[in-house]
Write a structure and sequence with these properties.
70 residues; mainly alpha; 4 helices; 71% helix; globular
Length: 70
């Protein structure tokens, strides 16, 4: 694991976003990096399609969540 130097403004944005998404600053940075890589390597997919694919691969089903609430 290494250290990544980022702009102070980007770090501030990471800190703010991490509070909203209930992640640590490092976890928020890792999330943005992973999503960015997925978007770059799958340019024909929308952000929502990428998230759906990742959730499905992790065994998470929005349909099963919806039916469990009823």
């Amino acid at each position: 694991m290494g250290i990544v130097n980022i702009d102070d403004d980007l770090h501030d944005q990471l800190r703010r976003a991490s509070k909203v998404s209930f992640r640590s600053i490092n976890a928020q940075a890792a999330y943005w990096i992973r999503i960015g890589m997925l978007c770059e390597t799958n340019p024909t997919l929308s952000f929502a399609e990428i998230l759906q694919r990742e959730l499905s691969a992790a065994g998470v089903s929005a349909q099963s969540l919806a039916t469990s609430e009823a």
